Every structure is written in structure tokens, then in C-alpha cells.
UniProtKB/TrEMBL annotation:
This is FecR family protein. GO terms for molecular function: sigma factor antagonist activity. The keyword Membrane applies. PANTHER family: PERIPLASMIC SIGNAL SENSOR AND SIGMA FACTOR ACTIVATOR FECR-RELATED, PROTEIN FECR. Residues 123-215 form the FecR protein domain.
């Protein structure tokens, strides 16, 4: 079995005969090893998107769906294909296979077929949007951010949302004390106890700042117990670098972006560059490594990327040039 054929299989670019070859190979010892080592990684990356109440996918149904996409409607089906249920760990591998196929073939639209009722709100680069959730809670999304949630929440049901990006939450307290949980990438979860807070969750990094009320953080395997945050607390996690810390900050300054301004308080220029890349989709280059570690404090307008660059240039004596989608800071 070649890697080229496997890649074409996951991209739906194979013939029916090639598809049968791949499926048969998956049932061999070598094929099982391949799935376990490669597909498990994709399963872990996508697991944060799946609601806990969703059952594991049916292996035979998954196989039929794959065969339906691979074979023309007129193709005879007299050649049997071994069922995925003969795998040593069928449901886990079927889920991993599903995750890999969804990622490789357009991911999101195919994923929506499994969870058709969920609502997804996506903001463009540099654009903000305020949403009202089914319970009356509101979320202001920063640029390049995505939020997924159910269109309705029943009484006594846990209110769950999935955030990828940055958002400011104003959570409504319910009479029956239903839990409100924000799921972040890399298995970080926030349990809300009636509050207002700011969340930034991109790739392996996450930053949570509590404005009012109280929240409880579940940082997965990195903590033996859940972390309870108080107003003014900032919690930062970089899962890849294994950097975790908690400190007290000016919470209002941390969420000032939603009111049209950015407030820096001992912020490194490298952090500012990362913010610009995340929110506006540009590539920021700081030519001097020492300049990356330089800290800045102050407030600048946040109406657009250009106003931010002008503010940085004026207040902090920086030379900034823009070439297409690339920003150079000197």
C-alpha cells in the first residue's frame, strides 16, 4: 500500500477498485497499525467539536457511506467488502476514520451532516459580531472567531458552546442553575457559574480573564483538580509549550477590544504581533529579536488594523511597513 494511494483515498479521488483495495488493507495488521498511529491524531484534534451526548458512529453505516461516495450508482455490488466491525477496536477507529475523512474533504460541510441542528457563527478577519444565545446570554466575537451551539436549550440541560477564537461572554443565570460550559480546543473547558469573562483560544494557546462572578476551569491532564477563578484573574495556557500560569490583571483592559480600543499593560511586542496575526490574518515580522521582548503600555484605537498600526507607530516610536499581507516592525 502506498502513501499516495491512501492520500487519494481520503480525498475521494480513487476508483472503486482502488477503494476496495484500501478498505481490505485497513483490515490487515499493517492497515490497523496505520490507522492507530495516524488517524488517532486527527481524532484527538477534532474531538473537542463533538458534543458529549453524541454516540459513537455506527461502523457499518460509516462503511456504507464511504462506499456510496466511492462507487457510481450503476456499479454492481457483488464483490463483498469486509466490514469495519471486524477491527480490534472498531468504533474508535471508525470515529478516527470519520474525523480524517471530514478533515481531508472539506471537513466542515461534511461534519454538519452529522450535527445538522447546530448553529455556527463565524466572523471575518478584523470584524466583530455580537450574538444572543438561546438562554439570553450574549457573546461578542472578535475577528476570525467561530462559535458553535445548539439552537435551543431545554430546561435542566447543560448549556454548551464551542469556541475557536476570541469572545467576550455575558452569561445569564438560570433559575434552575443549569450549567454553562465553554469548550475550547485542546480539551480546555470553562464551567460558568454566572458571570462575564473574556476568552482567547487559538491553536494550542488559550487565555481566560474573569471580569465578574466566578468560573471553574478544567485544564484536563495538566491539573489534578479544577481551577476556580476570581474577578481579575488571568489564566494562560500554551498546551504545546506546556506553559501555564495564573496572575491578577486589569480585567476591563483585557476585554477593551470589544469597545473599539486596545489597552496594553506590559504587553510584549511579540504578543501584539500574535494578536494581529490571529485577528486580521496577516504575517507579522519583527526584525530584531530584542524588539520582540520589548514591552509596551498604553491605549490605542481598534477600529481597523491600519489604526492599530498608526497607533503603535505614534505612541511607541516604531517603524512599521506593510507589503501586501505582510507587516514588518523595526
Amino acid at each position: 500500500m502506498t502513501e499516495q494511494l491512501l492520500q487519494r483515498y481520503f480525498a475521494n479521488q480513487v476508483t472503486p477498485d482502488e477503494a476496495r483495495r484500501v478498505l481490505d488493507w485497513f483490515n490487515t495488521e499493517a492497515g490497523q497499525t496505520y490507522l492507530q498511529t495516524r488517524l488517532d491524531a486527527q481524532f484527538d484534534e477534532l474531538a473537542w467539536l463533538a458534543p458529549a451526548i453524541v454516540p459513537a458512529p455506527d461502523a457499518e453505516r460509516m462503511l456504507n457511506a464511504i462506499r456510496g461516495r466511492m462507487e457510481p450508482a450503476t456499479t454492481p455490488t457483488e464483490i463483498p467488502v469486509r466490514q469495519l466491525t471486524t477491527w480490534a477496536r472498531p468504533l474508535r477507529w471508525a470515529a478516527a476514520l470519520a474525523g480524517f475523512i471530514l478533515l481531508a474533504t472539506g471537513a466542515f460541510m461534511a461534519y454538519r451532516q452529522w450535527y445538522p441542528d447546530d448553529l455556527v457563527r463565524q466572523t471575518a478577519f478584523g470584524k466583530m459580531s455580537t450574538l444572543t444565545l438561546p438562554d439570553g446570554s450574549t457573546v461578542t466575537l472578535n475577528g476570525n472567531s467561530r462559535l458553535r451551539y445548539a439552537p435551543r436549550w431545554a430546561s435542566h440541560q447543560t448549556r454548551e458552546v464551542w469556541l475557536d477564537g476570541e469572545g467576550y461572554f455575558r452569561v445569564t443565570h438560570k433559575q434552575n442553575h443549569e450549567r454553562f460550559v465553554v469548550h475550547l480546543p485542546n480539551k480546555l473547558n470553562i464551567e460558568v457559574l454566572g458571570t462575564q469573562f473574556n476568552v482567547m483560544a487559538r491553536q494550542a494557546r488559550a487565555k481566560v480573564v474573569l471580569n465578574t462572578g466566578k468560573i471553574r476551569l478544567d485544564v484536563g491532564e495538566q491539573a489534578k483538580e479544577k481551577l476556580v477563578m476570581r474577578p481579575g484573574d488571568l489564566f494562560y495556557a500554551d498546551v504545546k509549550a506546556k506553559v501555564y500560569y495564573r496572575k491578577h490583571v486589569d480585567a476591563a483592559a483585557q476585554s477593551a477590544w470589544q469597545s473599539g480600543k486596545l489597552t496594553f499593560d506590559g504587553t510584549t511586542l511579540q504578543e501584539v504581533a500574535q494578536m494581529l496575526e490571529d485577528t486580521y490574518g496577516v504575517k507579522v515580522i519583527i526584525t530584531d529579536p530584542a524588539l520582540q521582548r520589548q514591552t509596551i503600555s498604553g491605549t490605542i484605537p481598534n477600529q481597523s488594523m491600519q489604526t492599530i498600526l498608526n497607533g503603535l507607530t505614534t505612541l511607541f516610536d516604531l517603524h512599521i511597513t506593510q507589503q501586501s499581507n505582510q507587516i514588518i516592525i523595526q
